[in-house]
Amino acid sequence: MNNLLAALLITSIFFTVFVHSATDASNRDAAILLRPTENQHLQDPLGSLHDWLQTSPNAPCNWTGVSCSGGAVVALNLRSLGIAGDFPADFCLISTLRSLDLSDNSLGGNISSNSIALCSHLSSLNLSSNYFVGDLPGFPVEFLNLTVLDFSINNFSSEIPANFVNLRRLQFLSLGSNLLNESVPEFLSELTELTQLVLAVNPFRPSPLPRNIGRLAKLEFLIAPMANLEGQIPESIGNLSSMKIFDVSQNNLVGEIPKSIGGMRNAEQIELYHNHLSGEIPDAFSGLTSLLRFDASENNLTGKIPKVWRRCRWSRSI
Ligand SMILES: *[C@@H]1O[C@H](CO)[C@@H](O)[C@H](O)[C@H]1NC(C)=O
Ligand SMILES: *[C@@H]1O[C@H](CO)[C@@H](O)[C@H](O)[C@H]1NC(C)=O
Ligand SMILES: *[C@@H]1O[C@H](CO)[C@@H](O)[C@H](O)[C@H]1NC(C)=O
Ligand SMILES: *[C@@H]1O[C@H](CO)[C@@H](O)[C@H](O)[C@H]1NC(C)=O
Ligand SMILES: *[C@@H]1O[C@H](CO)[C@@H](O)[C@H](O)[C@H]1NC(C)=O
Ligand SMILES: *[C@@H]1O[C@H](CO)[C@@H](O)[C@H](O)[C@H]1NC(C)=O
Ligand SMILES: *[C@@H]1O[C@H](CO)[C@@H](O)[C@H](O)[C@H]1NC(C)=O
Ligand SMILES: *[C@@H]1O[C@H](CO)[C@@H](O)[C@H](O)[C@H]1NC(C)=O
Fold it and tell me: Which residues form the Leucine-rich repeat-containing N-terminal plant-type domain (predicted)?
């Protein structure tokens, strides 16, 4: 009897503590989420966030765009909701937040390194398709968990800051379609967890591909057309054995296609068109048995086409 009472008592204490702490966390998270709209830093002209009410049951876990785990907010997906204003860095005050997707909205202005620093516990940040301008924010060493960073389709200018090398876990990096106008930095070859790297459509200062890009052994997608690339395609691409889509078209690359390209043995698509490449197409291509599409048109290539390609399907001439 005593044991049963004790068990009941312990259970009810546990239950009370657990429920209360979950509620406290929810109340705190709800207050944090409401702050940017309350102080007018975030506008919601379409009323997409009309159900963000502190008083609603299960607030904030069943609010539009909010996902919780164990009563704590872990993900915010506010994609395509028509929200406007500054980067709402305050959302990152939720210490349990892991994923923040603010893409395809009308957010704008600068993002300071100080505000992004609040978000160091995130694993995924998507700010694609907004109106952000100015310098890319720098990332301090605390960003240990960020695996996805999508800054594409904004108006960021200037350089890729050197402290991007602090993003040791980064697997996906897109800076495509911005106004970045300094060089493509060599240090990108230090982000060795990358599987996807998008640099396309930026007015970079004419610069070569990182010489040691071959160190990105896990890279599957390099998307860099219209990035003002010049110089030769580095030999080290031969070490990109995971590469599936290699697109450096519409740049100013010169010299020969390195024979080492045969090392991209999983390549499905190679786009070299509209550059100033010269010489012959290396025989090494005949080893690329997964290749579905290869386009080297609008260059100065000479010589024969490897016989093995009669099996190949292509959409453009060489
Ligand atoms: C949130 O929960 C309340 C009460 O269960 C419900 O009335 C409301 O429709 C829910 N909101 C959403 C967006 O699911
Ligand atoms: C980021 O959002 C955009 C637009 O909503 C989407 O197309 C893109 O796939 C997202 N990026 C990632 C890495 O999921
Ligand atoms: C990274 O993620 C792990 C596991 O989810 C977590 O324990 C750790 O606190 C996170 N680190 C940072 C800096 O947020
Ligand atoms: C972004 O850049 C484009 C092209 O330079 C310009 O037309 C547009 O006004 C800019 N938008 C913002 C929000 O800065
Ligand atoms: C914000 O971005 C604009 C546009 O690029 C730039 O001129 C300005 O210096 C930036 N301001 C700050 C505080 O970084
Ligand atoms: C890069 O763009 C910014 C913003 O438009 C401009 O202030 C700066 O002078 C440009 N830098 C170079 C090297 O063209
Ligand atoms: C590929 O990597 C190996 C070992 O890391 C290195 O010795 C070699 O020079 C690299 N190949 C190229 C073409 O860079
Ligand atoms: C090809 O080479 C010729 C002669 O060197 C040069 O005039 C022409 O501009 C080159 N074309 C391309 C696409 O590089």
Answer: 41-69
Nearest atom (ligand 5) to Cα of 112: 14
Residue 208: CA count within 13 A, CB half-sphere:
15
pLDDT at 40: 87
Residues with CB under 6 A from ligand 2: 79, 103-104, 126, 128-129, 148, 150, 172
2-311, superfamily in CATH? Answer: Ribonuclease Inhibitor (3.80.10.10)
Helices (H) and strands (E) in the chain, counts: 2, 21
With a CB cutoff of 8 Å and minimum separation 6, the contacts of 170 are 146, 147, 148, 149, 191, 193, 194
End-to-end, the C-alpha distance of the chain in Å comes to: 87
What residue spans define the domains of the chain? Answer: 2-311
pTM, 2 dp: 0.90
Q: Cis omega (within 30 of 0) on the bond before 45?
A: no
Tell me the per-residue pLDDT of 141-186, one tens digit each, with 9 for 90 and over. 999 999 999 999 999 999 999 999 999 999 999 999 999 999 999 9
* Main-chain dihedrals φ then ψ at residue 268, nearest 5 degrees: -105, -30
The count of other CB atoms within 10 Å of the CB of residue 35 is 15
Q: Output the CA–CA distances (angstroms, integers) from residue 57 to 35, 51, 74, in the order listed.
A: 19, 11, 18
Q: Do β-strands 42-43 and 106-109 pair in parallel, antiparallel, or remain unpaired?
A: unpaired
Tokens of 157: 């200018």
User: How many residues in total does the chain contain?
Assistant: 318
Interval between CA 283 and ligand 7 midpoint (Å): 20
